[in-house]
Predict the 3D structure of the following.
Amino acid sequence: MSPISLDVAHMFAGGLVLVSFMMLYQDRLPPLINALSLHSLLLGLSVAWQAHIQNAPELYVTAVLAVGLKCILIPMALRRMVVRMGLQREIEVVIGTGITMLIGIGLVALSMDLMLRVTAGSSALVREDVALSLSVVLLGLLMMVTRRNAVSQVIGFMSLENGLILAGTGARGMPLVVEISVAFSVLIAFIVIGIFLFRIRERFDTVDVRALDVMRGEQS
């Protein structure tokens, strides 16, 4: 594999990490949804490039699904939810943005150190792509635990799943049936989450997950 092919693959994977940091930095819903769309677009480009350099045509299906579902369809649905539910555009956070970014940098450093050691016997493409994929997964988890707004937690879940797809394709691809199953599972999960959000909104007049903690405290 030529050095240029490796550099382009790492550029797309590194771009996903950078956009994950952009998502952590956002404190308003519309820019966060736009960042998710960009995140998924980079994932689609990364998977398409992997399909090219690995000579794996089935990965093009994954790229199309990533762009169609997570770059276009799901962000459009999220924007409609925000408008229909009249959600506050600001996102409440558990800890400050600066501290969150520092924790994110630490998680990226940890994932790089860990995965480059574990995959020492693999090719350069697999080693670095898997390390960057783990960084995306950990940053998605960090977003989910540091945001109180349920919509932002859904976006964190989507970015986490993008990291898993990147890892699967970077590690010489996944069977096509698995890729399609994952795509439909994400779509079904999003529909269920959408219904869940509307129910929270109807019950508590907010999508702040602290309302669920208050209800559990009253019932106990």
Notes: The chain has a mean pLDDT of 78. The CA atoms of residues 82 and 214 lie 23 Å apart. DSSP finds eight helices and no strands in the chain. Residues 3-219 form one domain.
